[in-house]
Amino acid sequence: MNFKIILFLFLLSFNKSFASDYFNTHKAFVNDKLWIEKNNLHTPPSLPPPIQKASPDIAKDTLSISMIENLVLLGKIWGFLKYHHPEIAKGKYDWDEKLISFLPDFLLIKKTQERDSLMLQWIEKLGKIPHCKRCRLSSNAYQKPDTSWITKSDLSEELKNKLTEIFQNRNQNKNYYVHYSSKVGNPIFTNENAYSSNPFPDKNIRLLCLYRYWNIIEFFYPYKYLTDKKWDSVLKEYIPKFIFAKNETEYEQTVLQLIGEIQDTHAVLWNANKINEWRGENFAPFQLRYIENHFVVTDDYHPEFSKLSPLKKGDIITHIHGKPIHAILDSLKKYFPASNPMAQKRDIALHLLRSSQKNISIRYLSGQKSAEGMVKLYPRKELDIYIGHRINKNETSFRILKRNIGYIHIGKIQNKEIPTIKKTFRNTQGIIIDLRHPPSAFVPYSLGAYFVTQPTDFAKLSLGNPQNPGEFNFKMSEKIKSDRNNTYSGKLIILVDEYTQSQAEYTAMAFRAVKSSLIVGTTTAGTDGNISTLSLPGGLETAISGIGVYYPNGTPTQSVGIIPDIIVSPTIEGILQGKDEILEKALELLKK
């Protein structure tokens, strides 16, 4: 097979082991995945897989415009009923099976009147809707559900009235398919059949996959309004893509593109076996990073193997197998879900020089000279692959630098060390907190108390309303309480870059609220808030940011990231000289 095709395919998604380093780990950012697995809520044993019936029109090579429009309406109504109809909320029906059973008759309809009559009969069979005395609409909601599609559609008045009746008397009790974490308030998606026995589901189940995911975003994603595309248009666009996926690889690619539409770096794709197979098991023995608009060699994963490579630190990759690197970058963007461009390039860099073959042809710049050569690739198990910045295992989580400056490494800190840190750093000239690593402990409140003299707002969260899916409200602001008897009076500098993500970004927000603080570095990954995982057909799994995180004034952090007070970007010259330019800038600022 043409190696360019292999190269294109193996770079299509995240490997779970890579992405897991970015996930939140503390109880305030728990995704409840272990709780779900413990309680066996992903695939209830009492529910058999849906009946697989033939759907004549879906078997065609093309779909008419009217059929796509009808399938859009079906997907919206199916999801609307799933999260609003009281009888479905009780778990009385296997709602996947109901969709699959309904599709054959639905796809035979020719006229809108037949369509609406069939849908109305389908809904009536679910049972009567009791009058709801508690169904209220909040006038102060930050985001409100959009039900305008009901009135704007070409549905019959009778069907519109039925859907409106269901909304006005929607479920107010527990829902079989979703509940909210008691810890933070993110949605937990339960009783979703993953259909793991068939990694390439039939067309009906693939359509179900799209409907499931689209409706979860429609009703439970706090950042839906921030996406580049209107979410309403995504359903229509992806119906043909899901139906006509030709094989397992193409199906996984389509799912990956879909989750990329929400522009959330938390939205990785796990268990994508075919994509991982094409990506290959072999890696270059060095790290790439996007610096000064180039993919640059910044470190090695194996010193001895790196010596055998023509590349060295500071070299710039310009071509892979003769194709310009930025053309490859443009072709890959849709396969790397990310909240902002820098986070996306960060993640692509991890996989650019990866293949199922043992060598890869490159062209590169070394200094001012252009060169080309073959880079030998190695199995991952033979390399010390890490994400972001290498952690020196011999260094402690905190230490005193020259000129009596305290330094805290967030990737190694433990909460039990905080009393000692406070005592040790009490008389230092300043403190640097390095947030360029995934935190090893959750410290915004415990360590933050050391830097404020009174309770200080630093963030507010938007949470979904279980009684009105799609509605999000702000809860009370998150505050740092003061450790009044032990408050630090010196300067505080926080280091960030594109590897500062999720819990680390939340931590940066807390320390930014300190009056004497400065944030130094580059814009962060822009994906804040605890994650919610969800299962998709074919045994796939993904995640979303489950709550909204904002500054106290309502400014979002999602997509935007934490923007430094003083921007310092690494340079190729700095890489060549072995400098940490962000840390050096912080030390310079503390001289003043």
Automatic annotation (TrEMBL):
GO biological process terms held by the UniProt record: proteolysis; signal transduction
Keyword Signal: yes
Keywords attached to this entry: Hydrolase, Protease, Signal
Any one cellular-component term (Gene Ontology): outer membrane-bounded periplasmic space
Matching SUPFAM superfamilies: ClpP/crotonase
EC numbers, comma separated: 3.4.21.102
Chloroplast recorded as keyword: no
GO MF term list: serine-type endopeptidase activity
Signal peptide: 1-19
Domain Tail specific protease: from-to ranges: 345-569
Enzyme class, spelled out: hydrolase
InterPro entries in UniProt: ClpP/crotonase-like_dom_sf, PDZ_sf, Tail-specific_protease
Record protein name field: Carboxyl-terminal processing protease
